[in-house]
Amino acid sequence: MNDETGLLEASGVAKSFGAVRALTDARLRVAEREIVALMGANGAGKSTFVKIITGALKPDAGKVLIRGREAHVGSPAEARRSGLVPVYQEPSLIPDLDVADNLKLGDTPGEPFIRWVEELGTEGLSLSDMIGDLPLATLRILDLARALASEPDVLLLDEMTAALPTNLVDRVLKVVRAKADDGMGVIYVSHRFTEISELCDRATILRDGRTVGELEIEPGVEERAVELMLGQKIDLGRGRVAAARRADAARPRLRVAALASAPKVTDVSFDLFPGEVLGVVALEGQGQDELFNVLAGFSRPTGGSIEINGQEASFNHPADAIAKGVAFVPGNRAEALFPQRSLTENIALPFSARAGSWGQRQARREQERVNHAVGKLQIDIRAQGEVQRLSGGNQQKVTIGRWLAVGVETLLLFDPTRGIDVRTKRQIYPLVRELAGNGASVLYYTSELEEVALACDRAVVIFNGRVVDVIDAAEADEQTLMRAAYGLAAAGAAS
Asked: What distance lies between CA 80 and its chain's CA centroid?
């Protein structure tokens, strides 16, 4: 720790959920003007630790000191009064209310909130906007602006940037560093080594619910951090996952032509072939959310056409898209899960449409397919009673696993590795490649530019609601993609 005044120290923290021991001996300390990374593989206990520190969960053991005094923080409201303000991994806003009503519920002052929204780079927001109509990236910015408006002593950010495009990430990091320089302490939960190296002063490492080390941030720290997180060495090389050769097909699986969806999608065209993983790259607010919503059947286009296997398709409901073999995995996994239902029930959800044909033999066959998906994705089954007890990474595996179990021709993946650790990412990339190798077509939006070269065959770049470039994965370095995402590349062919 540096020589500044100690703001927070947690030690000996333990927490169990039934038979699952989420934390056994977690500790962390943060001082004024210090940003401490809290790192660990999915399931290490990071989010549980953050929720205990901020009063959302009660620990079974351990203590938390605030400015040297033991604190018994029994709720997030008490934590806020003590100067500890979190921004959790999932949005903490009520979708059926507008922005203004959400501010009232949290006693958030409006003027500083608006000032921080603008400082964080979000434009055109109205207090009358319904939360449920806003994209996930905007919700994350609103949560952070609301936290900063309360002037915290310690800010806890749980995967704050995981749903943000690069331009907003840069703005968030700049604001957080400036606030820390002014005296605030920050606990920063992230799987992104580049952000941690740029932003943080130290890292606290969790493994299996225990703090296993503290590291100063310096060149080469990534290797040591991963070794501590996993209890073993892992190759951090950026080599691309072996790609399946795109099937030679005279006809694309999915053809999108001059697609428009008011107000942001104005002219999107591309072909997606059987056996191909096609990346989608875009900065925040360029139309990627609307594009995926149209293709998944959540909204209707205002122009253009969609063809599936050479036949024009029109979706009035997500069930129409699924019936045509198009399945969607949203970036916000909470939208795709029944948190209080079991792992098996969540994965088997697509089978329910066939319930009329179920018999003992059919049910047994489908259970076998569920078990295969669980094994293939190496999903942690200790908390089968409720999916909400799984780590974020394991929850994301469930959202993908259901389509692996049922089988799908076209899979729409919207930021599928958001907020998950390097080991889990390295499990998902080969799975996506395997799905493509077996003939599926995958449309893959990612907010992490390096993933294009790791998982995709090509990428379409969207700027201002239009496809401005199509880039082969072999040429898709981050600089090239970033230039295109800012509209600085010449338009390419859209097929």
From this structure: 25
| HSE-up (13 A, CA, CB side) for residue 378 | 11
Which distant-in-sequence residues (6+ apart) come within 8 Å of 22 by Cβ?
15, 16, 45, 48, 209
Of 11, 3, 56, the closest CA to residue 29 belongs to 11
Q: Kindly report the CA angle at 351 between 350 and 353, in degrees rounded to 5?
A: 85
Q: pTM of the entire structure?
A: 0.64
Measured between alpha carbons, how far is 42 from 44 in angstroms, rounded to an integer? Answer: 6
Q: What is the 3-state secondary structure (H, E, C) of 110-161?
A: HHHHHHHHHHCCCCCCCCCCEHHHCCHHHHHHHHHHHHHHCCCCEEEEECCC
Count the alpha carbons within 13 Å of 100 in the hemisphere toward its beta carbon: 4
pLDDT digits (tens, 9 = 90+) for 59-100: 999 999 988 888 878 888 888 888 999 998 788 899 999 999
Which pLDDT score is estimated for 288? 93
CB 133 within 8 A of CB 188: no
Residues with Cβ within 8 Å of 375's Cβ and at least 6 positions away in sequence, in order, are none
To the nearest whole number, what is the mean pLDDT of the chain?
85
**Residue whose C-alpha is closest to residue 177's, from 158, 198, 153, 160:** 198
- The sign of the CA dihedral 333, 334, 339, 345 is negative
Instruction: Sheet with 311-312: list strands edge to edge.
Output: 311-312, 303-308, 254-261, 265-272, 466-472, 458-463, 277-281, 441-445, 410-414, 326-329
Query: Degrees (nearest 5) of the Cα angle 44, 45, 49?
Result: 150
